[in-house]
Amino acid sequence: MTKVIKRTKLAAALMGVMAFAGTSVAAAQQVDVAKLQNEEQKILNAQEQSQEKINSLFEQSQDLLIEYRSVVAEYENLKVYNDHVAKLVADQQATIDSLQRQINGIEETKQGVVPLMYEMIDSLEEFVKLDLPIHKEKRLERVERLRTIMENANVSTSEKFRQIIEAYQTEMDYGSGLISYQGNLNVDGQEMAVDFFHMGRVAFLAQSLDLKNAWIYNNETNEWTELEDEFLNPLTTAIRMSRKQTAYDLVKLPVFAAESAE
């Protein structure tokens, strides 16, 4: 009887130990599940952050693509216009070269050359009036000086012709490079001191000396149009570039095609 009681107690003790062990295992499993869930949440958070970065990069790439296409389109338009101007310049240069070849025998052909020179002066005056008003008064004064020289008997025919050719060459020079100079601009009936700036004959702009206002010459209306504030700093940089006060760089400026000078 005593052996049976002892065995029963032993069995009960073993069952208690096993139950306690089972409870510990279950608790350990719960801890492991919690850790796994925590790690899984971290992974999900990391995935969400990665996806947000991917979305942001995609949006930036789309914006850059749109900007690139816009720049390409603007470049193509400018290229077409520059090619057009280059053809005009080449044709003008060909005319000058042809006239220069005739200079050697000019004294023998005065009767034919004199009408030609008057015609060249008239054409030059018309070109200045139709062109961008870059140094317009100065250029028209040059035309008037040529007319005065034509009536001066003390100036030889060859010298008259040379000065006309020189005037044509000066007009060609206005069509290249970045050039700026100071002058006065009539704004709403008031004269304002400004810095004029032009990129060849592609665009003609002006900026007040206090750098607070800027205008562009509209070839279609033959009027000055005020620019938005976003062009003030680029125009200031361009003017400084033309004066070699800063290194050459890309700047964003508005453009009106010089159709009226064609």
Description:
Helix 2 (110-130) runs antiparallel to helix 3 (136-150), helix 2 runs parallel beside helix 4 and helix 3 (136-150) runs antiparallel to helix 4 (157-173). It is built from five helices and five strands. The N and C termini lie far apart (130 Å). It folds into three domains: 1-95; 102-174; 178-261, no CATH class. A five-stranded antiparallel beta sheet has the order 1-2-3-4-5, with helices on one face. With 262 residues, it is of the alpha+beta class.
Helix- and strand-based class?
A: alpha+beta
Shape: elongated
Following the backbone from N to C, one meets helices and strands in this order, namely HHHHEEEEEH
Number of domains: 3
Strand content: 5-15%
- Give the uncertain stretches in residue-range form: 258-262
For the biggest sheet, the summary is: 5 strands, antiparallel
Question: What distance lies between the first and last C-alpha atoms, to the nearest angstrom?
Answer: 130 Å
Task: Determine the fraction of residues in helical runs and give it as a percent range.
Answer: 55-70%
SSE inventory with pairings:
Elements (H helix, E strand, L loop, with lengths): L1 H100 L8 H21 L5 H15 L6 H17 L4 E10 L2 E10 L3 E6 L5 E5 L4 E4 L5 H11 L20
Antiparallel strand pairs: 1-2, 2-3, 3-4, 4-5
In short:
With 262 residues, this protein is of the alpha+beta class.
Summarize this structure as a short list of keywords or feature phrases.
elongated, five-stranded antiparallel beta sheet, DUF3450 domain-containing protein, 3 domains, 262 residues, signal, single chain, 5 helices, alpha+beta, disordered C terminus, UCP028069
